[in-house]
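Before going further, learn to read the protein records used in this course. The integers have meaning only within a learned vocabulary of local backbone shapes. The record below shows the convention in full.
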Amino acid sequence: MSNNWLQNIPQKWDTIRLKNVVKLKTDRIPGTSKDDGYVGLENIQSWTGKLLSSEKSVISLEDNDEKQNIVNVYSKGDVLFGKLRPYLAKAHLAQYSGICSTELLVIKPGKHIDSRYLLKTILAKEFIDQVNAETYGVKMPRADWSTVGNISIPLPPLPTQRAIAAYLDRETAMIDAMIAAKQRLLALLAEKRRALIMQAVTRGLDQHAPMKDSGVEWIGKVPEHWSIGLSRRFICDIEQGWSPIAEERRAEAEEWAVIKLSAVKNGRFIAEEHKALPANYDIPSHLEIQTGDFLLTRANTPLLVGDVCVVGETRSKLILSDLVYRVMLRSDQIDANYFKYFLLTPVGRSQIETQARGSSQSMVKISQDHIQEWVVPLPPLAEQQAIASLLDDSLGEMVQLQVIAEQTIDLLHERRAALISEAVTGQTQIAE
């Protein structure tokens, strides 16, 4: 394992394997996630260590012990560390005693390490990267204690550890407050955006147009001159992409690349979200993404599956991944942008989420047959185009605000990670 992050720690500090300053607790009892005081991976916020007791589960706990209703026992002051998908950086310092998922390692700090300093250190990006590099399993990658416990960490004197922990508590709290403010802005923008789209794609542009019952309870009334149809009426074909083993970097200008799932986000196409493909691959060039393509994610969590976009600007030599469909539409019957906007409404989303299927709630999928069965309100084509054009104009400024807020959040997360790394390796001067 690489210890590059420990090369420049202060001379008076030690480095030590984690297992030599903590104890792994292995006490287990019968229990379930319904018990009071239970902590699951879904209850811990990534990277911050904060407990989110009301957060809905987004990670499937597939460990056999979970199925047999066996849980770990932890005490106040123990540190819980997620071994499933460690790149999610799930760790928490327990403020009370309780039980937790067996996908969480229960670590008891020894007398030579402060519990708050321990939490900060194992949430440092460099530590998480080392754990993730040693995971096993493709679908549900995990780390084990033999990996985690053997990673070396910086160990300053106890007074310095406590000063570092207090400093990071104070500084990260300010950053987290700024992130939360930006996230509230994004939520407000999303709500306003949904309301504008919903009004346009189910009520039309003429507020005085006569209305009729659509015949579909969850759509309600639509303008009298609109029709209601199944999506198979205007879908020519559906094409699925390819997911080869890619490199963990963006492609250079002349290299081929495959899009990541995050390339399709809230109705936008983000060409930069891709991974480079090795030069020796036989690339299926027919999967290259083109301007005007209608893309739909076929697999994700229930709240994110079925995201859509119409490709605007894109780079060349960029192909579809296996998790994304390219849907070919009859341009004489449906405007691609109108269809995109409809699928972003609560009415469109409800159909997608209802039909998505999967063995767990962490990853569900949409079949091509499901896509053909969606019920869609259909204005005349010229009116579809007018609705889409109006929404493009109306939402343009809102999208820019959204992009700026997302970029700011990314920068704040980067600053937070750098702050922790610099502090726990002694690169920041902190008064004790």
Remarks:
- Residues 54-67 have pLDDT under 50 and may be disordered.
- The longest helix spans residues 158-203.
